[in-house]
Amino acid sequence: MATGGNAIRGTRVGAGPMGEQDHGFHADRIAVSYWDALGNETVRYFAAGIPEEEIPETIDSPHSGLPAGRDKENPPAVAKTEPYKTHLAYVKERRTEEEAEALLDDALKQLRERRGQG
């Protein structure tokens, strides 16, 4: 016969007389609504005794992933994303050979000065 631990057969860990009220499910709470730029409403619950300054002004909306604020008429703006750059766009932004040589010479000069001082 294989037995293990000190548990009595037919019981489970954590079972006992505790009810929901002992776990805090019936604590006094306040509901705070947040709206994102798309008009989605998210309701978060906080303990009734929490100070107003501890309730966050913005959260991330689970519906859209956008920031959501407490002001329904003026929700946070949608973040601006840069368009995808192609390889050619990066090539056009590269420095000229003369600029690259000047940067390299300047970096080498600074490195030599540091080694000379150290």
Automatic annotation (TrEMBL):
Keyword Cell membrane on entry: no
HAMAP family xrefs: RbpA
Keywords, sorted A to Z: Transcription, Transcription regulation
Family of this protein: Belongs to the RNA polymerase-binding protein RbpA family.
Described function: Binds to RNA polymerase (RNAP), stimulating transcription from principal, but not alternative sigma factor promoters.
Record note on quaternary structure: Forms a complex with the RNAP catalytic core and with free principal sigma factors.
Gene name per UniProt: rbpA
Gene3D superfamilies per UniProt: RNA polymerase-binding protein A (2.20.28.270)
Keyword Transcription: yes
Protein name per its UniProtKB record: RNA polymerase-binding protein RbpA
